[in-house]
Write a structure and sequence with these properties.
Number of strands of chain A: 2
Radius of gyration of chain C: 24 Å
Number of domains of chain C: 2
CATH architecture of chain A: Orthogonal Bundle
Largest sheet of chain C: 6 strands, mixed
Largest sheet of chain A: 2 strands, antiparallel
CATH topology of the largest domain in chain C: Rossmann fold
Distance between the termini of chain C: 48 Å
Strand order of the largest sheet of chain A: 1-2
Oligomer: heterotrimer
CATH class of the largest domain in chain C: Alpha Beta
Chains: A mainly alpha (293), B mainly alpha (282), C alpha+beta (359)
Shape of chain C: elongated
CATH superfamily of chain A: MetI-like
Number of helices of chain C: 8
Structural class of chain A: mainly alpha
Strand content of chain A: under 5%
């Protein structure tokens, strides 16, 4: 879709796009190309010697047990965040779609966590889960669970998953509710006349019709878990205990800023870029398909 | 509901209420803690009834911050956060309006190339180019400045797309009528395009304000001076000392303060917020 | 006010040519309607005159000045769009004043112009409304108001009535006629609706596939269509067209059925291929003996003022216009006579009108 040609000017359009292009060039393309370039170099932490090493940094990463572990952690983390987050939000959205009165009130009560910064979300949850003073470990102890996410890596993972899911509930809920409300009432009424009960209607009519929304949210949640949870991890666990919550994004930061391993950090950036590109392509494929139908 | 089943409806309300309670729990506890003294918070279990220290804690936080963590006053941090959030959201809106206008209403060499350049930035989030971007800012001597905090965040593929989509729906005849009326391109932009984009700008503003306010990694990297901490960074530094050293009453008051502006924006501009969320994801 | 002249104007979009060598002179104060089916290029002609499309070949003059490279705003024209193109966020007053404001006219003078236009169009009570608060007809009037305030050399109308419902369209048609009479401004009006063309035009231009088929006063075009296309396009229902070969006192159609030609009717030479055209109102029921052809009625449309009988003759659909009270039903065989002076002939190759002396 294109406009008919409307305005003509030799210089004006360039002036109009210039600010955006200047910023993208200086802060996106130049650094990204630097990352690509540095990923092929080996540099000592003091910058005194630089050596071209080809793909050695990448080869090194894939031999590095720590990096592979971080990969696995990221996958587990994303699956848990997406799975739990989507199920919980879908449940709430279905209920909100069911009720006759007050759906908007519940929407208002559920959307505000979107406004909370990931890092703040992390702080809220470590306060609740603080082994020394938190209210939740106190309750958990009563049912025989000893909570200390500073020592127990599974509990640390649970903590960051809960915080990440909590923050994303609003978003998922809004999209699910919109998706549910766009399903024509008449379809559900027809199924009811055909004799299908509420559960059956949900699984045979509503859920399949909702699948585009679900798929879209799945991709968005994975992107979110991969890239937008840095603040949660940094404020809640700093990747620990040990490396047990060090997701890929956190590892780039650690190796680059704390470890000053520039080549490795750059190579990790390049791998992450590849992942984002992959996910973006999936997302756009999906959107194209949505447009067709 | 199709059929009347009071039991089902009651269950639905119950589940929703429970969901709301779970979602609200951390914020409620935070709020309660922000109204108690540090000693009251450190009692196990802490009371879940609001205490009497609300005014004291918030005043202390705003005017002097966490003294044990030697932090700056939260009032200062809130100002920094506000400046950053507003600059980023307005900057993104202005820059994207301009580029979308150029791309939709002009034909010029390299137009599609520029369009793709902006598009590709979607695939380069800060998180994946941390170090080299930091180096650019350091080389430009923009560490610990507002410019460093905001300018790199101002490019926006999403906003550009949203405006482009919207401009496509403005009838061609409107631009032609303006041409016959004698309006120059920029005059048309100001008199017609900008006023018509108001709803879209409001929707984007909500999303972008939250985005700007909640920035974490970027300010973490480029601010080392207390006076340039945003509130989100500041709070992180307040708890860095570990449980014993943390003044939880102040931290929790700060957390409430940090959540307040974006939450208000979302709740007061709920209609635009929902529109913004749905449309930026197209 | 001014003359609008097109000389050898042509237009291509890339490799596709959409306008071929068009000549047209719109006299000062004249109301010319360009009519044709959609895609015939009529809107493109208007847009070239407005300056919204560049001209590929030829020359356009407005008021004696070549405007090929002149910006739309400097051509001193005003345009009324099909979808009105009112600025949705501006009031009626601001919409009308916008062009004057840009030209830097003093405020008092703008107010005067707007008031005058509003008075002419009876928009006085609506000046502070937004377009969305107006009905279709009112929006249409505002669009015209925006054109009038500028006091331009020429008005360009691009299908201005096609977004209105049938009743409003009739009403607005009358208003435009009255308005153009009062203002006397040179006007070019594009439409696909031949009734609008017939009723509004001083002269009309019939276009087809990028070419001008005929230019003339509406009645002349109706009475003497220059081509088979014009014959079929102008007139409701359209002229009946039958292709065949001229015989002795008769015209033989493709499948062998015959039309008997009345004595004294002009006709092409014996043996020539031709197209015979006759309007539905020029076929009248007669006795079997004098009948030129006999049509079996298939469908009947009673319009109140008259009755249309549809049938097929030798595989060609035909329509006959009969008096309102005509008694007939599907299956009725109608013996129809031709009036010698009302027969049209067209060349089957060129589709052009054949002007033949009476026999």
């Amino acid at each position: 879709m294109e406009k008919r040609v409307v305005f003509r000017s030799r210089w004006l359009p360039y002036a109009l796009v210039a600010p955006q292009l200047a910023i993208t060039t200086a802060f996106f393309f130049w650094p990204a190309s630097q990352a690509l370039f540095q990923s092929l170099l080996l540099q000592d932490p003091f910058g005194t010697s630089v050596q071209f090493v080809g793909l050695e940094n990448f080869a090194h990463l894939f031999r590095d047990e720590g990096y592979l572990a971080s990969f696995r952690i990221t996958v587990v983390f994303s699956v848990l965040v997406a799975g739990i987050g989507l199920s919980f939000s879908l449940l709430l959205a279905v209920m909100a779609d069911h009720i006759v009165r007050g759906a908007l009130v519940f929407r208002t009560l559920l959307i505000w966590p979107y406004a909370v910064a990931p890092a703040i979300a992390g702080v809220l949850w470590i306060f609740l889960f603080s082994p020394a003073i938190g209210i939740l470990p106190y309750w958990l102890a009563k049912i025989g669970i000893h909570w200390n996410h500073l020592l127990d890596s599974r509990q640390a993972m649970t903590l960051v998953v809960i915080a990440a899911v909590w923050k994303q509930v609003s978003y998922n809920f809004l999209f699910f509710l919109a998706g549910l409300q766009s399903i024509p009432r008449s379809l559900i009424e027809a199924a009811a006349i055909d004799g299908a009960g509420p559960m059956r209607r949900f699984w045979t009519i509503v859920f399949p019709l909702l699948s585009p929304t679900t798929f879209f949210l799945l991709v968005v949640n994975i992107v979110y878990a991969f890239f937008d949870t840095f603040g949660i991890i940094d404020s809640a666990t700093q990747g620990g205990p040990g490396q047990s919550t060090t997701v890929l994004v956190y590892k780039v930061f650690q190796d680059g800023f704390k470890g000053l391993d520039l080549g490795s950090s750059a190579a990790q950036s390049v791998i992450l870029m590849a992942i984002v590109i992959g996910l973006t392509v999936v997302q756009f494929r999906y959107i194209e398909r949505k447009v067709q139908y | 509901m199709v059929e009347k089943r009071p039991a089902l409806s009651a269950a639905a309300y119950a589940i929703l209420a429970l969901g709301v309670a779970i979602v609200a729990l951390p914020v409620y506890v935070t709020f309660v803690a922000s109204t108690q003294t540090l000693d009251q918070i450190l009692e196990v279990p802490m009371s879940l009834v609001p205490g009497t220290e609300l005014l004291a804690n918030y005043t202390a936080a705003l005017t002097s911050g966490s003294e044990r963590a030697a932090s700056a006053p939260v009032g200062r941090m809130m100002v920094v956060s506000l400046v950053v959030a507003l600059t980023v959201s307005f900057g993104k809106i202005v820059i994207s309006l301009l580029s979308a206008f150029a791309i939709v209403y002009f034909r010029f060499p390299l137009r599609m190339f520029f369009f793709w350049m902006i598009f590709v930035t979607l695939m380069l989030p800060v998180e994946v180019r941390i170090l080299p971007t930091y180096e650019v800012i350091a080389d430009l001597h923009l560490l610990n400045t507002y410019a460093g905090l905001t300018v790199p965040l101002i490019a926006s593929a999403t906003a550009t797309f949203l405006f482009r989509q919207f401009f496509m729906t403005i009838p061609d005849e409107l631009a032609e009528a303006a041409r016959i009326d004698g309006a120059s391109p920029m005059r048309f932009f100001w008199d017609v395009v900008v006023p018509l984009s108001r709803t879209n700008m409001a929707a984007l503003f909500v999303i972008l304000f939250i985005y700007g306010w909640n920035q974490y990694l970027w300010p973490l990297l480029i601010t080392t001076e207390e006076s340039m901490y945003t509130v989100v960074i500041g709070i992180r530094r307040m708890i860095a000392g570990g449980d014993a050293a943390t003044e939880w009453n102040i931290v929790m008051a700060t957390a409430m303060l940090a959540m307040l502006p974006p939450a208000l924006v979302v709740l007061l501009m709920q209609r635009w917020f929902v529109k913004g969320l749905v449309e930026t994801e197209k | 006010m001014a003359e609008v002249v097109l000389r050898h104007v042509s237009k291509s979009f890339g490799k596709t040519q959409v306008i071929y060598d068009m000549d047209l002179v719109v006299a000062d104060g004249e109301f010319v309607v360009i009519v044709g089916p959609s895609g015939c290029g009529k809107s493109t002609v208007l847009r070239m005159i407005a300056g919204l499309e560049p001209v590929t070949g030829g020359v356009i003059e407005i008021g004696g000045r070549v405007v090929n490279d002149v910006e739309p705003k400097d051509r001193n024209i005003a345009m009324v769009f099909q979808n009105y193109a009112l600025y949705p966020h501006m009031s009626v007053r601001e919409n009308m004043a916008y062009g004057l404001r840009i030209r830097g006219m003093p405020k008092a003078e703008i107010a005067e112009h707007v008031a005058r236009a509003a008075k002419i169009l009876e928009l006085e009570g609506l000046l502070d409304r937004k377009p969305r608060e107006l009905s279709g007809g009112q929006r249409q009037r505002v669009a015209m108001g925006r054109a009038i305030v500028r006091d331009p050399a020429a008005f360009l109308f691009d299908e201005p009535l096609s977004n209105l419902d049938a009743k409003l369209r009739v009403q607005m048609r009358l208003e435009i006629q009255k308005l153009s009479r009062e203002l006397g401004t040179t006007s070019l009006y594009v439409t696909h609706d031949q009734v609008e063309a017939m009723t509004l035009a001083h002269r009309m231009v019939v276009m087809n596939a990028g070419r001008v088929e005929q230019i003339g006063a509406p009645l002349d075009v109706y009475l003497r269509p220059a081509s088979a296309f014009v014959a079929a396009f102008i007139g409701v229902p359209p002229m009946n067209l039958l292709a065949g070969r001229v015989g002795e006192g008769a015209f033989t159609l493709g499948n062998g059925l015959v039309v008997r030609l009345p004595a004294g009717a002009p006709r092409p030479p014996f043996g020539a291929e031709a197209i015979l055209g006759v309007r539905p109102e020029h076929l009248a029921p007669v006795g079997e003996a004098e009948a030129a052809l006999t049509l079996t009625v298939e469908t009947i449309e009673r319009l109140g003022a008259d009755t249309l009988a549809h049938g097929t003759f030798d595989g060609n659909p035909m329509v006959v216009r009969l008096p309102a009270e005509a008694t007939l039903q599907p299956g009725t065989r109608l013996a129809l006579g031709l009036v010698p002076d009302e027969i049209h002939w067209f060349d089957p190759q060129t589709q052009k009108r054949l002007d033949l002396p009476g026999g």
